[in-house]
């Protein structure tokens, strides 16, 4: 559905800073290279504590981070072959969460009926992905495709972000191209104009015209001279729960959002730059360019955004009843999608509870 692009006052949707997630999607929880053979990594997806481990054969597993014996966090344990052993009493659980060994029981004695929940998990695009929702739905959706990873000529810079803010605040920051003034000292963009806006049941796509100028713009091939202003269209797409943006033929961003809890979010981002260098030279300079772009460019942008997002969160916590005004229709569309996805999950869960004879009534966000 095409939406109007007129900038006019609208009230920020009530309850947006309290809304939960739809867990029936794949969420990135860490970089695959950081989890070695035999290691365990604790992660949280909207307060679900999960122990992710790589067994001695290199296979990934994800278990609820609670030992069903005494409630100890399983991520404190040890990997033994394909199993994860609790640190407290050594009870071992396989990748499906089933207790398969209690070290102090006689070999012939029956094991206790003890099981912890397991989650679908996969390694893709250099990331570890976990599906925290209904495992029967894990095959119906997959993580986003990232074609630049297999295309020549792209320099990829990975960045991890950690923010003390609700994921809706972080998502709106990503969609909001009108905050270029925040980054003016970093030679960011300026004079943004929203030219197209489209919303579907699962996505919001906005196209902006923005202008660039300066040495960084010249380095990235946006202009031939540092004093020259170049105006180009950029597309920002929110495909719940992740983002991607494209500056055609120049740069791309894939941002995988991890909602950790009501006031904490993480992100795993891949920035791609089309650097105008011969392929052999780009390969030789890859590590150096990666460090330079990350340290002297990208991280500085993120630090500035982090300050604003965390300030917004703290102000909300001080007075949740206060109402705010937004004029960017793309932000309002992202809020609608965020609430809609959560309500779809709640409605599905309520239906399953009723079908199973439960009388629980789960509220939705207004």
Order of helices and strands: EEEEEEEEEEEEHEEHEEEEHEH
Instruction: Quickly count the helices.
Output: 4
- Assign the CATH topology of the largest domain: Naphthalene 1,2-dioxygenase Alpha Subunit, Chain A, domain 1
CATH homologous superfamily of the largest domain - what is it?
Naphthalene 1,2-dioxygenase Alpha Subunit, Chain A, domain 1
Overall shape: it is globular
Report the sheet-strand fraction: 25-35%
Q: Radius of gyration in whole Å, from Cα?
A: 23 Å
Mean pLDDT: 90
Q: How many domain units?
A: 2
Strand numbers in spatial order across the main sheet: 12-18-17-16-15-14-13
Low-confidence stretches: 359-366
Number of strands: 19
Class of the largest domain in CATH?
A: Alpha Beta
What does this structure look like?
This protein is an alpha+beta fold and 366 residues long. It folds into two domains: 27-137, Rieske Iron-sulfur Protein, CATH 2.102.10; 147-326, Naphthalene 1,2-dioxygenase Alpha Subunit, Chain A, domain 1, CATH 3.90.380. Helix content is 22%, strand content 31%. It is built from four helices and 19 strands. A seven-stranded antiparallel sheet has the order 12-18-17-16-15-14-13. The protein has a four-stranded antiparallel sheet with strand order 6-7-8-9, with no helix packed on it. A three-stranded antiparallel sheet has the order 2-11-10, with no helix packed on it. Strand 15 and strand 16 form a beta hairpin. Mean pLDDT is 90; it is low at 359-366.
């Amino acid at each position: 559905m095409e939406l109007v692009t007129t900038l006019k006052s609208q009230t920020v949707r009530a309850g947006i800073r309290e809304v939960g997630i739809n867990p029936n999607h794949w969420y990135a929880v860490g970089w695959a290279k950081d989890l070695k053979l035999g290691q365990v990594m604790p992660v949280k997806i909207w307060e679900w504590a999960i122990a992710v481990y790589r067994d001695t054969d290199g296979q990934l597993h994800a278990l609820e981070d609670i030992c069903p014996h005494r409630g100890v966090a399983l991520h404190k344990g040890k990997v033994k072959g394909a199993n994860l052993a609790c640190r407290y009493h050594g009870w071992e659980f396989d990748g499906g969460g089933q207790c398969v060994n209690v070290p102090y029981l006689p070999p012939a004695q029956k094991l206790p009926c003890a099981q912890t929940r397991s989650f679908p998990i996969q390694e893709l695009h250099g990331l570890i992905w976990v599906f925290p929702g209904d495992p029967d739905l894990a095959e119906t959706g997959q993580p986003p495709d990232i074609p630049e990873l297999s295309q020549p000529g792209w320099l990829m810079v990975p960045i991890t972000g950690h923010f003390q803010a609700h994921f809706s605040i972080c998502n709106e920051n990503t969609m909001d191209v009108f905050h270029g003034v925040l980054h003016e000292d970093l030679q960011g963009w300026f004079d943004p104009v929203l030219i197209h806006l489209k919303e579907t049941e699962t996505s919001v796509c906005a196209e902006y015209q923005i202008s660039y100028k300066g040495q960084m713009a010249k380095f990235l091939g946006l202009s031939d001279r540092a004093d020259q202003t170049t105006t180009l269209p950029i597309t920002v797409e929110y495909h719940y729960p992740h983002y991607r943006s494209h500056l055609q033929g120049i740069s791309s961003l894939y941002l995988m959002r991890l909602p950790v809890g009501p006031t904490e979010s993480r992100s795993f981002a891949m920035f791609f730059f089309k650097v105008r260098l011969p392929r052999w030279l780009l390969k030789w300079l890859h590590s150096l360019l990666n460090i330079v772009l990350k340290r002297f460019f990208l991280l500085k942008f993120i630090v500035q955004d982090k300050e604003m997002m965390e300030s917004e969160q703290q102000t909300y916590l001080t007075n949740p009843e206060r109402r705010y005004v937004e004029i960017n229709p793309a932000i309002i569309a992202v809020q609608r999608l965020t609430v809609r996805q959560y309500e779809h999950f709640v409605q599905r869960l309520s239906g399953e509870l009723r079908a199973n004879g439960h009388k629980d009534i789960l509220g939705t966000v207004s």
